[in-house]
Specification:
By secondary structure, this protein is mostly helical. It has one domain. The protein is built from eight helices and no strands. The protein is rod-shaped, with a radius of gyration of 30 Å.
């Protein structure tokens, strides 16, 4: 240690007290500036990460509404195809809600995701269901809706990856994000499937078909 600090001690011994205090003050300022710079960079990193999470939520919320409206559209379609004519008007109104939700979701996406193959394929699938859904048998209509919703849930995971939500360094934040993006939406989708199957079964007055279809799915 003496050898390490020997040049600095020799320099200080050659100057007066005024210069000694000036040198020590400069060194102290350099140390403080270094600490402040490190603090700024760390806070900036945290702020950028938080902003990315906020941006991701602004995109995920419209996508969640698309999924929600599609699940209700699936149930109403199942009821109409099961023979409940009274649901036709509700289904048509819900179809408009889905179209509006798709438009809002598309507008919220960044350019690279909005033009990506995954979102384009989702849009094409929805157009096919919208145009020909009532021409299908009830089972096939249910399957196509379900595949589309599953694609949307996977797309939500892609959005989370795009914004770095899955790389959050905090374990509690990571678990919360995983619940919001993956676990909870998939659990709600299982319930939505049962609701759609039940609606179709009640409309067709064939309740035993619920069990058969759930086992198939």
């Amino acid at each position: 240690m003496q050898s390490l600090f020997a040049p600095a001690i020799a320099l200080l011994n050659r100057v007066g007290y005024t210069r000694k205090f000036a040198i020590m003050g400069v060194l102290a300022l350099i140390a403080v500036a270094f600490l402040l710079g490190s603090l700024y960079l760390n806070l900036r990193r945290v702020a950028d990460s938080a902003q990315l999470e906020i941006d991701a939520l602004r995109v995920l919320q419209p996508m969640a509404r698309v999924v929600q409206h599609l699940q209700m559209h699936r149930g109403l379609s199942s009821g109409v195809l099961g023979g409940n004519e009274a649901m036709k008007e509700k289904r048509a109104a819900k179809e408009k809600d889905v179209i509006d939700a798709f438009s809002a979701g598309r507008a919220s996406l960044p350019q690279e995701l909005a033009t990506g193959k995954e979102w384009v394929r989702i849009g094409e699938t929805w157009e096919a269901i919208r145009q020909d859904g009532l021409e299908l048998i009830r089972r096939e209509n249910f399957v196509q809706h379900t595949r589309l919703i599953e694609d949307l849930l996977h797309f939500q995971s892609s959005i989370a990856d795009h914004y770095g939500l899955t790389n959050d360094p905090e374990i509690d934040s990571t678990r919360l994000i995983d619940t919001i993006v993956r676990s909870l939406p998939w659990a709600l989708e299982r319930m939505g499937q049962l609701r759609a199957l039940g609606t179709g079964a009640l409309a067709s007055k064939q309740p035993l078909q619920i069990v058969q279809q759930v086992e198939i799915s």
